[in-house]
Amino acid sequence: MNESVALRPASGCSATPVLRERGQREVFCGLTSIVWLHRAMPDAFFLVVGSRTCAHLLQSAAGVMIFAEPRFGTAILEEQDLAGLADANAELDRVVAEVIARRPDLRHLFLVGSCPSEVIKLDLARAAQRLSAAHGPAVRVLYYSGSGIETTFTQGEDACLASIVPTLPATEAAQLLVVGAMPDIVEDQLRRLLADLGLPRVAVLPSRREGNPVPVGPGTVVMAVQPFLGETCAALRRRGARILTAPFPFGEEGTTAWLSAAAGAFGVPAGRFEAVTAAPRARARRAVDARSGPLRGRSVFLLPDSQLEVPLARFLTRECGMTAIEVGTPYLHRELLGPDLALLPAGPRISEGQDVDRQLDRVRSDRPDLTVCGLGLANPLEAEGLATKWSIELVFSPVHFYEQAGDLAGLFARPLQRRALLAAGGRA
């Protein structure tokens, strides 16, 4: 079957020396991941233990009015907590009880730690055990850290899913476990493709409903759809699952390679694979070609932010005709990113970690046509005449698999199109 989906050769970046940066960092904190996780897990509640700054961040990032009853909130540290005049655990027990009483549909409640020193001192892992015993089995209380001290904002999802893994039931059955939060429409598209391929059993973590828990065991083959899920994959491996790596499903080429790896693991015949994927592959290629015109022949510089940078660079260079000058990522997970690195055409610098001042110096020196960066850097670079793309938008938007391939190209083309229109207006 591999011959039918042979990838165009590339000299690859597997052996490219990695520039390791350790300096000033500029990223959102891991609490941001709650904004998409709470949509993927409708019977879960995320209770951040933190400061008013944490509450303002979530409120602003989610754009949710307070009367909309979102499935997240903040247990705010007040002055009496900071002065040691209140029993923090008693207060936490009270707040959790209020949330559960108000939301009887909950099945998961996550205590999410933040970065204030007063929160770090709290043993929230033990608190989660105590509260789970008090409110279980109807509601399971788990803990993870969403602290801004972590690698980058997408690590919040990794920590959340890793906290779920020890609670998953065991199974010996052969199955594919797809790991990573996806919009419902993207997950539904993926499930249809895998069902048409004839895979015996497919599960997704996170599950939309706790009432249908995801099992795991020696017969489980795990494939991630997000490159920042290293801890979750490691936790699943400890449960006996096998981790299967492939290029991530961005664009037609990446999606085909990802599905090919899944099909190969379960012995899907080549003819069936071709019959199932031929039409969506053709649609994806046409969509990418239609949207990527402004990108062809242009250069791109990807600053480290979301950990999506390596597979996105592979998509932009191989499918959209761009040239990558530098591909930076907060953390280079060699196992998960290896297939994408092997396909990424040789030439760009590969950097890991952050030293914002040095990286900005290189951006100003290279003057790329498009810079993919965090929100805090975009406006200053735009003021200097550089076109930018907010990397966080690529995490919030549906961008995986065939039907979203054209939209993904369009997200990168839009800043260049806008700049061209502004330039034309200025000349007029």
Main traits of this protein?
4-stranded parallel beta sheet; 428 residues; globular; 45% helix; Rossmann fold
Description of the structure:
The structure is a single chain. The protein has 428 residues and is an alpha/beta fold. It has 3 domains: 2-25 and 291-427, 3-Layer(aba) Sandwich (Rossmann fold); 30-149, 3-Layer(aba) Sandwich (Rossmann fold), CATH 3.40.50.1980; 175-279, Rossmann fold (3-Layer(aba) Sandwich), CATH 3.40.50. 45% of the residues lie in helices and 16% in strands. It has 17 helices and 14 strands. The chain has helices at 34-40, 52-62, 79-82, 88-102, 117-120, 124-135, 155-164, 184-197, 230-238, 251-265, 270-291, 309-318, 334-343, 356-366, 375-383, 391-396, 405-427, and strands spanning 18-22, 44-50, 72-76, 108-113, 140-145, 175-179, 202-205, 220-224, 242-243, 299-302, 323-329, 349-354, 370-373, 388-390. The strands form 3 sheets. Strands 1-12-11-10-13-14 form a 6-stranded parallel beta sheet, sandwiched between helices. It has a 4-stranded parallel beta sheet with strand order 3-2-4-5, with helices on both faces. Strand 8 (220-224), helix 9 and strand 9 form a beta-alpha-beta unit.
Low-confidence spans: pLDDT under 50, at least 5 residues?
none
Tell me the number of helical segments per DSSP (H or I, 4 or more residues long): 17
Q: What's the N-to-C terminus distance?
A: 55 Å
- Name of the CATH homologous superfamily of the largest domain: Nitrogenase molybdenum iron protein domain
Structural class: alpha/beta
Broad shape: globular
What is the CATH T-level topology of the largest domain?
Rossmann fold
